[in-house]
Amino acid sequence: MSIDIDTARRVAHLARIAVDENDLPALAGELSQILTFMEQLNEVDVDGVEPMTSVTPMRLKRREDVVTDGNMQDKILANAPDAREGFFAVPKVVE
């Protein structure tokens, strides 16, 4: 796929990049090369290939997913202007 100068100008505008008129042909050429490379990547057969998180085979560290209250109620409420019975106290706004 080939990118023309008008498309390069529009891409630069959408990306909020100031590009001089003299540099637009070079930008169009670079964008065309990127798209050509992406088309080449689409030709690669990746059926049966699992996604990788790293180039070295390793298992990710995992921890148990345990729900806790954080045990920090006192520290959190210490900064509250008004706290009652372990909760934030706020003025009543609905009558």
Give the arrangement of secondary structure elements.
Layout (H helix, E strand, L loop, with lengths): L4 H10 L9 H19 L30 H5 L5 E2 L2 E2 L7
Antiparallel strand pairs: 1-2
- Look at the structure and give the mean pLDDT: 89
The chain-level structural class is mainly alpha
What is the number of beta strands? 2
Strand/helix succession: HHHEE
Which strand order do you get reading across the main beta sheet? Answer: 1-2
Task: Describe the fold and architecture.
Its EC number is 6.3.5.-. It is an enzyme of class 6 (ligase). Heterotrimer of A, B and C subunits. It catalyses: L-aspartyl-tRNA(Asn) + L-glutamine + ATP + H2O = L-asparaginyl-tRNA(Asn) + L-glutamate + ADP + phosphate + 2 H(+); L-glutamyl-tRNA(Gln) + L-glutamine + ATP + H2O = L-glutaminyl-tRNA(Gln) + L-glutamate + ADP + phosphate + H(+). This is Aspartyl/glutamyl-tRNA(Asn/Gln) amidotransferase subunit C. The chain has 95 residues and is mainly alpha-helical. It has a domain at 5-42. Helices cover 36% and strands 4% of the residues. It has three helices and two strands. It has helices at 5-14, 24-42, 73-77, and strands at residues 83-84, 87-88. A two-stranded antiparallel ribbon has the order 1-2. It is elongated, with a radius of gyration of 28 Å.
Question: Which features does this protein show?
Answer:
2 strands, two-stranded antiparallel sheet, 95 residues, 4% strand, Aspartyl/glutamyl-tRNA(Asn/Gln) amidotransferase subunit C
